[in-house]
Amino acid sequence: MQMILTTTKSTQCSKEFCYPRWEPIEYSLAGRYYNIVPRHTRYQKDEDNNKLKITHKILEECEPNELSMKIFTHALCANPNRSNEELMKLHSTLQEVSQKYCLLYLAIFPIGYKIRRLTLIGRWVAEGLITKEDWPSSVCEANRCFDVLINRRCLVYPADTGATGKVKSCMVGDPCQHY
Asked: C-alpha distances in angstroms, 140 versus 13, 25, 127, 151, 160?
């Protein structure tokens, strides 16, 4: 007997590959990462139940981008003491599409590598992750996305700050040790 596990929201295409013609088993990537969080964070109190609910919403927001889910899970394992407010802010941030893709883009850099603000913003705009009416508007929006990600202090951290207090470079945080 052969089975196909599908991680897509539509199973219609998967049905063609099943023999005998059975219904494919659907598997949620968000569910996989959601199951990892309680084991590595040891959430147990009522407040932690709220954190788990918010965590599940964040992971669903990231789906189907498994890399985003992995980055978030690593960051949460590294610092499980995040407040409900921090998690809610991250969830609202991820609801904006351009910021989700900007966050995903950060995964190409190694942990601890200093990423220059101007380089990152230029890449986001040049590669079409952030598009507005014109180039200056796109750069302005990219700067705003960069600041939002830095201010959340969940996944991306300031590395160098200029004399005016503006973050000049950042780095992706450390992953949890046991996965």
From this structure: 41, 44, 15, 16, 20
Kindly state the helix (H) or strand (E) to which residue 157 belongs, with its residue range.
strand 156-161
For residue 178, the model assigns a pLDDT of 29
What's the rounded Cα separation, in Å, for the pair 168 and 20?
58
Identity of the residue numbered 76: L
Torsion region of 153: left, alpha or beta (phi above 0 gives left; psi -120 to 50 gives alpha): left
Q: Specify whether the CB–CB gap between 111 and 176 falls below 8 A.
A: no
Strands (E), 42-144: 115-116
Which CATH code fits 96-179? Answer: 1.10.10
Task: Collect all residues with Cβ–Cβ distance below 8 Å to 27 and sequence separation of at least 6.
Answer: 5, 6, 7
- What are the pLDDT digits (tens) for 117-139? 999 999 988 887 787 778 898 89
Domain extents in the chain: 96-179
Give tens-digit pLDDT for 54-67: 888 888 877 767 77
**pLDDT under 50: residue ranges of the chain:** 1-11, 175-179
